[in-house]
Amino acid sequence: MVQITGLKNILICTDGSEFSGGAIREGLRLVKKTGARVAVVSVIDFNPELQALAPDLVDKMETDIRKHLSVIREEAARESIELEAFTRLSTTPYIEIAKEAERTGADLIVMGRRGKTGLKRLLMGSVTKRVIGHAPCSVLVVPREAKLECKKILCAVDGSVYANAAAAEAVMISKRCGADLTLISVVHAETASAFDIVHSQMHHDLIAENELRVAESGLKSAKEFAEKEDVRCESIVLAGKPYEVIVNSALKKSADLIVMGSHGRTGVDKLLMGSVAERVVGNSECAVLVVKARK
Q1: Which of 11, 58, 205, 237 has the fewest C-beta atoms under 10 angstroms from its C-beta?
Q2: Is the predicted pLDDT of residue 116 greater than 90, yes or no?
Q3: Structural domains of the chain sorted by starting position, each given as residue range(s) with its CATH number in brackets
Q4: Structure pTM?
Q5: What is the pLDDT of residues 55-67, one digit of tens each?
């Protein structure tokens, strides 16, 4: 189990763009707080055809990334942080990042994500979502402007083994950091307002009774674990589109971290991470910790 305050090895990923700024800043802060070893990797999306047609362009990309990594080294040195920084060329960057996580023994990958689009539908970038799907460890996704304080944490629970792992993680982080913890479970409601209806007010013709029972059961188990660890928490059931409710609840609670589960690694190239987790990561204004359940 990964605890944000008890990490041993962290891998920070950067693509050299402004969208990696939050991951670099908060990743180094996390290293400073925990004393973990850290490595920084930048994987260039290698295109053999491009190299054949424009070798100078590829060389420039490598040179620019090395300069970017040099700046990160200097920033880390000012905080007395020693780090390993390296660049890689790969036709499948997400696979290369997963391999580097294995090689460095990372128990957490920290990375950024592309900015929101004008659409409500998620477009968070294939590398980030595929890293989450293939990584051997949990992944912390940090939007550019997000700050990770671990003061107010929101954890999404749905009764699955993946959500249970996330809830256990959220409880331990809250315990170690003294954070306020909110456990939330969302049931679907096509016409219900997510914030006007709580479980005590739900109409049976609107919410499937079985779905509500599963949601309440998952919350009960998570809350019992929190109480066992002497962590006080609020638990709520809301209705609506799950990713919208989770993201809006985090805003309402002023959460600086959302914790949620993900399916384990897939055996295919295309990510099967789950649309709710994917959309929360893509639309959240705060950091999102995607916990990988051990098989």
Answers
A1: 205
A2: no
A3: 1-148+288-295 (3.40.50.620), 150-255 (3.40.50.620)
A4: 0.86
A5: 788 788 889 999 9
